[in-house]
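DATA SHEET
Item: assembly model
Revision: 1
Owner: S.N.
Input lines:
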Amino acid sequence: VPDAELADLAAASSVLQIPAGAILIEEDEPAADYFFVTHGTVTIFKLMPDGRRQIFEFAGPGSLIGPGASDTSAFSAEALEPLRVCRFTRSRLSALLNRIPAMERRLLELANNTLAAAREHMLLLGRKTARERLASFLLAWSRPALARGALSERTIRLPMSRLDIADYLGLTIETVCRVLRQFCAENIISFPTPSELVIRASAALERVADGTVLAARQPRSAAAKVPTAATHYAAVAQACAG
Amino acid sequence: VPDAELADLAAASSVLQIPAGAILIEEDEPAADYFFVTHGTVTIFKLMPDGRRQIFEFAGPGSLIGPGASDTSAFSAEALEPLRVCRFTRSRLSALLNRIPAMERRLLELANNTLAAAREHMLLLGRKTARERLASFLLAWSRPALARGALSERTIRLPMSRLDIADYLGLTIETVCRVLRQFCAENIISFPTPSELVIRASAALERVADGTVLAARQPRSAAAKVPTAATHYAAVAQACAG
DNA sequence: CGTGTATTTGACTTTGTTCAACACGCGTGG
DNA sequence: CCACGCGTGTTGAACAAAGTCAAATACACG
């Protein structure tokens, strides 16, 4: 979310309205433009040859979407809802980067944030149960949604379908439904309509999300190791010999 | 893998040797230094409160490891083997960045590559079967390993344990063992010793890796949709109205 | 108000996990 | 030199979480 640079950016970009379902970026296509989302949500995903899909991110207002340095994009991007975006051509953006040095640092910071989020998501996909995944997702989605003003008091709109949620969390539609209903039954959340969420017990949801609850069993991963700061400094302090 | 900048970097860094098992970076600790790996392998991971672990990356020679912009690191880093690394303090690195503008672009590129790899890994964790995960991993590990010269003809060293592989792929030790043995039985690979891999049929391995084989069943994800370039351009070409 | 899609629910199957032995390599000390 | 102990890797059998298939219901939209 740049600040002073916004004026400069506006000059170099064109504002577009895009209908739901439109493909902004397609995997393996020559990497075209960058998009800055101002309204709406974009799904960032990859497909396997047989059609399995993994969604990496629901990119909302404030997100910058662009293929990296490579010539063809490594992912696809699709409008989940009607969108308003600013489009930059690649050349214009790199011209901007040369002109405004701070911009580059801004982009680096942004890439690092995206990477941190990706890693959190990898933890979710690799190690969390279905309940933990749904709880994490609802919390992560609701936080910014509530911050930038929700529908009403505590009602959050979920613009994505159950299938999208499933493909984001590495689950199936049915599991997503079942777990959401389970949360309803436990009075943790409720659904005025299937796409409107109310969080009734965020504390409970948070406990579920990081596995604090129902985690009596001891996993076999690197649990025993308690590598405290002591180990840390001892190791790094070793004399250099290269 | 910078080039001309290397001399500059060398001046600003100190070379360290680090024993296996040492913690370079610890999650939630104040973000200290950056490390450039020259020899050995570092695991980048995150733990859940109950000890479940997800490994994001086995960072080998040429990798730069550093906490992002935030004040505390979002992940941990541990020496998988005895290491040789160059350490930069945060301040020295940012001094370098100010002095050499190309460096910043280099870092941005690097971050984008890491992000692309992370996304590929997310696809693996969220949507691939155990066989596909192992096949993908063996290929991904062997490619650079073979490139920079392996033990002998086609023998690749796996410096990580089965537990590390499991935590990298979001599986259990047992599943990793079983699938690897299965591949052996199918004459796709063989293990002179448990940590020495020989790939006998890389084509077969590649077919397994992207699910081209044994994927008769039709998944329910976004399969039907065939949003070709047509959709794409139609959408983006919409007149701007913002 | 009817039609088509999205969501929900139920019954059953599968994949991968859990629990429990067992094998193997290797370093230590008798 | 060999018995022992320990850590890592391997294997088998029972189990469970999530997936599949199928059907009913709810919702949105013309």
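QC remark: Residues 223-235, 237-242 of chain B have pLDDT under 50 and may be disordered.
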